[in-house]
Amino acid sequence: MRVIVAEDSALLRQGIVRLLSDEGFEVSAECSDTGPLLALVAEHRPDAVLLDIRMPPTHTDEGLVAAAAIRAAHPGTGVLLLSQYVETTDTVRALAEQPEGFGYLLKERVADIDELGGALKRVASGETVLDPLVVAKLMNTPRPTSPLDDLTGRERDVLALMAEGHSNEAIAQRLVIGGKTVETHVRNIFGKLRLEQDLLEHRRVRAVLTYLRA
Hints:
The chain is α/β, with parallel strands linked by helices and about 210 residues long. Helix content is about 50%, strand content about 15%. It has ten helices and six strands, in the order βαβαβαβαβαβααααα. Strands 2-1-3-4-5-6 form a six-stranded parallel sheet, with helices on both faces. Helix 7 packs across helix 9 (about 180-190), helix 7 (about 155-165) crosses helix 10 and helix 8 (about 170-175) packs across helix 9.
């Protein structure tokens, strides 16, 4: 699997490259700012791009801007953003615009190569991945009347894990319940959110977006 790494901290970038290489990933290119990133993606055609949200010169949202440009020019390329802090507003906006193949992890997850590698593989395959702490912050944010109000506590737990990018099997393991029970909860979530079967738009993604926007 081919990956490009964009991170302005040389030490962290080298560490990420080393970790990924040791796990069998092919790091096709690396850079310290977003200037050459789009050209590198066009040249190397990676499966996924790993990049920091806050990059030079302003260290604000350069990573988000670059991610949007990559997805527009190369929609089949997964993008996994890294951040030092839990930032939800811009992340939710970016997810709402194009959730498939998009992920967001806190930098503290980098040391866990299984989690980092798994997230890269999931965004490369078109899945959406959110850091559990981001999901927790979104869940704890006071909301006005919401489409989620009709969900039970367990259904909210299932939807939160769906937002993190977990499969039904992984959700069953996390919640220590049966696979059939998870399927029932997912069907109930779709029904309560009024998400009818749509061949053009995946209900799972729409359910997560409803959750993030609420």
